[in-house]
Amino acid sequence: MTTARTSQPAARATAVIGLDLGGTKIAAALVGPDGAVLRHHHRPTPAREGAEAVLDALAAAAREVDDGAAAIGVAAAGVIDPRTGTVTSATDSLTGWAGTALAAGLGGRTGLPVACDNDVRATAATELPAPGDAQDSFVYAAIGTGIGGAVAVDGRMLHGSAGIAGHLGHLPSPEAAGLPCTCGGTGHLEVIASGPAMTALYERLSGRRADRLEMVAAHASAGDTAAERALATGARATGRALGGLANVVGPHRVVVGGGVPRVGDRYWSALTDAFRAELMPPLRDLRPVRPRFGPDAAVLGAALLTRTVTLHHPGETR
């Protein structure tokens, strides 16, 4: 685990803590009122040890960066309802995570008010424009080990019933027909277009092993037709899904982040072409774009939650 501290003035009465909880790592930051990251800390996620162990680890990470923070914001894996502060649904990436009282559990451990939301939605909130900016509706997709997303309309992030809005990975996808999804359904985008899904598709097509998507991308660059097909299938499936969603929402921007788009131009071009093919005429000039912010986006988005969603105070009942 690592902690980095930046020399700053001691008075931070309005600083808050941002926590980013993923399946493998917890990132923590102390964020000043101007949005500057004052301290960093990282530690492994005890993903297989149960919800109580995860809450303990979140509290420990918060303590590593705390210096008089006023509140904690948590960007967490799973379907998070920020109004109740609970995990309403989750895959098996975190054992026993579904049903966890996230805000209450962390507030009880730290004594600080807690706001929480889905990790992708919190990260996407950093893409919201400044007040008065007309470009205030967007679709955000995070393509990585899984597929997550967020939708903002008229400058406001959509949460939906039980906090489920924006889960793009569970849109039906014809390319995934019959394939089981981690959510219990079948035929969803995530099982054909995530990094592991495209890697598995390559293995099915080629009969050869591949440890990770970067290896598939390297094979594709060398002219391996199975690798080219696996990348193109996932990219086109994602592009079509995003294009269809753009027709529903009418966004000013469509932002595509996560690790998968970084595998190269071949993937990005296939996604963009499929996206464009779905668009209705009024959206014909719309193109996917990269995120505005870098590695700190998740913890900055988590910190922002303390001002934008329900803040749960220790000991309160709702």
**Low-pLDDT ranges:** 5-12
Distance between the termini: 35 Å
Neighbour order of strands in the largest sheet:
1-4-3-2-5-8
Oligomer: single chain
Order of helices and strands: EEEEHEEEHEHEEEHHHHEHEH
DSSP strand count = 13
Largest sheet: 6 strands, mixed
Mean pLDDT score, rounded? 91
Number of helices: 9
Category from helices, strands and their pairing: alpha/beta
Strand content: 15-25%
- Rg on CA atoms, Å: 20 Å
Helix share bin: 25-40%
Query: What is the overall shape?
Result: globular
Could you characterize the architecture of this molecule?
The protein has 318 residues and is an alpha/beta fold. The chain is 33% helix and 20% strand. The chain contains nine helices and 13 strands. A six-stranded mixed beta sheet has the order 1-4-3-2-5-8. It is globular, with a radius of gyration of 20 Å. The two termini are 35 Å apart. The model is unreliable at 5-12 (pLDDT under 50).
